[in-house]
Design brief:
The chain is mainly alpha-helical. The chain is 68% helix and 0% strand. It is built from eight helices and no strands.
């Protein structure tokens, strides 16, 4: 049983060995490494697919359905036996599925970023990353409504095709704006390579200025926002402390294993 004497020699306890771990080793193991968000490439790829789909939909509608939407006149009968509107609706459904998968992919990576302590970027894009899917869901609802009306009143066929193409164009504009804003935010975040929010706030405290830390009370913030930020910080610090404990134990064990004669 070890002595409780506070003047006990460090040689009696290997954990208190005077040979400390190298500074570069501690720096490499304990400093959080930045992981960029890989969602920009996928978002841009889907945006390109969306643009191509809308262009093809307009070309198909103009070349195959004008002036009479009830008679498909596509060169080579490419859409046979399906009608042009059916092809456009099927493509729209596939596009919605791709946007749904994109939203799940983005949510997965943003949750990982939040767990690493980057709560500001998570909150700033919380609604933005869902907006594109909401736009397409609203467009699908509108298209379904148009098809229901067309089924009951099939006479103005040209009008229905014009409405479908107009909805596709409006969706493209809104989705393009949303995804461009999102990609700009994420590119700035990846380029800046910031440390977790709690470490960035320590820099503010180390170099005082007129900027007030968001962890404390601010009159411009709502009570719910303050509680959410503090909860995120506490959760991040808990995970970070658990990770540091595991890494410190591993480093200590490896150091003791390299000096068995000290035990």
């Amino acid at each position: 049983m070890g002595s409780l004497d506070p003047t006990q020699s460090t040689e009696d306890d290997p954990l208190l060995d005077t040979q400390h771990l190298p500074q570069y080793s501690l720096h490499a193991h304990f400093r959080p490494r930045f992981h960029p968000l890989p969602t920009v490439i996928i978002a841009n790829l889907l945006l390109l697919i969306h643009v191509v789909f809308v262009i093809l939909a307009f070309l198909t509608g103009v070349l195959c359905s004008y002036p009479n939407p009830n008679e498909d006149k596509c060169p080579g009968n490419y859409t046979n036996p399906l009608k042009v509107q059916t092809i456009i609706i099927l493509g729209k459904v596939i596009l919605w599925i791709l946007h749904f998968l994109l939203e799940r992919y983005i949510q997965y990576h943003h949750s990982k970023v939040r767990n690493r302590g980057y709560n500001i970027i998570y909150r700033s894009t919380r609604h933005l990353k869902r907006l594109a899917l909401m736009i397409h869901s609203t467009g699908n609802t509108t298209l379904l409504l148009i098809l229901c009306i067309q089924h009951s009143f099939p006479e103005p066929g040209m009008l229905y095709l014009d409405l479908i193409l107009a909805i596709l164009a409006l969706e493209l504009i809104c989705s393009l704006t949303c995804l461009l804003i999102y990609t700009v935010k994420i590119r700035k975040f990846n380029k800046a390579k910031p440390q977790p929010d709690i470490l960035e706030e320590e820099k503010v405290y180390a170099y005082p200025s007129n900027i007030t830390s968001e962890t404390g009370f601010r009159t411009v913030s709502s009570l719910e926002e303050i509680v959410e930020k503090q909860g995120d910080m506490i959760a991040h610090l808990k995970r970070h402390n658990a990770l540091l404990s595991k890494r410190l134990l591993a480093l200590t064990s490896s150091d003791l294993g390299s000096h068995p004669n000290r035990l």
